[in-house]
From TrEMBL:
Alphabetized SUPFAM superfamilies for the sequence: Protein kinase-like (PK-like)
Name of the protein described by the UniProt record: 2-octaprenylphenol hydroxylase
Domain ABC1 atypical kinase-like per the UniProt entry, residue ranges: 96-339
Any GO BP annotation: ubiquinone biosynthetic process
Amino acid sequence: MLRSVAHLARLAHAGLILCREHALDRVDPTDLPAGPASAIRLGQFLGRVIGRRDRREARLAAAFTRLGPSWIKLGQFLATRRDVVGDEMAADLASLQDRLPPFSDTIARQAIEAALGRPVDEVFDTLGPPVAAASIAQVHKATAEGRELAVKVLRPGIEQRFRRDLETFFFAARLIERVDPQARRLRPVDAVATLARSVAIEMDLRLEAAAISEMTENTAGDEGFRIPRVDWNRSAKRVLTLEWVEGTPIADRAALEAAGHDLKRLGALVIQSFLRQALRDGFFHADMHQGNLFVDAHGNVVAVDFGIMGRLGAKERRFLAEILWGFIRRDYRRTAEVHFEAGYVPDTHTVEEFAQALRAIGEPLRDKTAREISMARLLSQLFEVTELFDMRTRPELLLLQKTMVVVEGVARHLDPELDMWTTAEPVVGEWIRRHLGPQGALSSAAEGAASLGRLLFTAPDLLARGERIAAGLADMARDGFHLDDASVRAIARAEARRTRSGRIALWIGALALVAIAAAMWS
């Protein structure tokens, strides 16, 4: 009861800040489910009553920044979920900058010493002031053994702060699913669970170091793309040490031109590097915005900040490759079949109906030049259409789509005339030939033979297990299904809790009304 009241109080505080910042003014609730739409309309009304009088524009990103680190991460995550928040809100959140004031050098040194178990002066020859600070960690420049290093240090107490706020997010998601059945198809609880997993990985810097190591191995032969090396001896759960990256930010187009870099080549390199990671490796950098990409003196693109990574299984990689290839060749039926083969569209629909919907996306592109077609926009339209065919939300595909949007934006910033399809064809075509051509057929046959061999090896075990299950079912059919005393008592306790929960919900509803009234008149 008290925990629910605390969650409601935190949500009311967040709602108050959103209203005062006019953060919801530009959000169109028309296409949202009834519950979220009503909440947006209420927030817009409260904004007119208690909002700032010097309003210039909607300030959703500013409101999330005021709410703190957990809300910044939530905002960045929601920017990838247009199906949940709508296009207007997603566009606003996409501008959210993960920048916060740094914590002091003294606290940073104490954190490093606690994490590594040695005094800072024994670990590093020098440790400079912070050069960048985000919601979860900040970065210092250091030197050791004649090398320049980047030292990433977690914020003190950040785990406890995120744990508390994530509990509130889960409470809100469960409440939404309970009171608005329409919103369940958006899977808000699953969305918060995805955010929680992502944050947990980001807050264990050993996992980021492992991601860097894996991607370094994957991209070792990729010309023009580089990743900083991990210094494992100076890294731990709360501290990550990498080689220092000396280069020009990829956002600084003028500086890149002045340094003599070929911007067209760099634009193509960014796109092809991402597609190789996604298709070939099934493991991609999912935060490839301009702030995380540099160009070194040799013209290599150097990526940093591997806290958010994406993975695609073999099925998802085939899905992505055949989707892109199908639209390139205008083979809408094959593109539709891929959705059904992957199990993304239920068989209550037909391939022909879905192919017709895909044609509605692809045909308007026929009269446009390749330079006018956005691959990211194509994927966005595709996922919009799949909602009509009951395709359930796939978090890994949404993360892929979000990264594609960002990567395409970076590439077009470098080369406004970039032809996405010509640039992507070598990577996508190579994958298609390798996995779906004659070579792919031989590989699939070998994998099938290996799977059959494993099945034959485990067959005796499976048969014995089947016999035990069959015997148990026969006994149950003959003697009936019985509950022991402990099970009966457990069911009785659960029923009693359900009755108490109903009474508690009434109190929570009353307190929520009080919180809203206080927000209106404060």
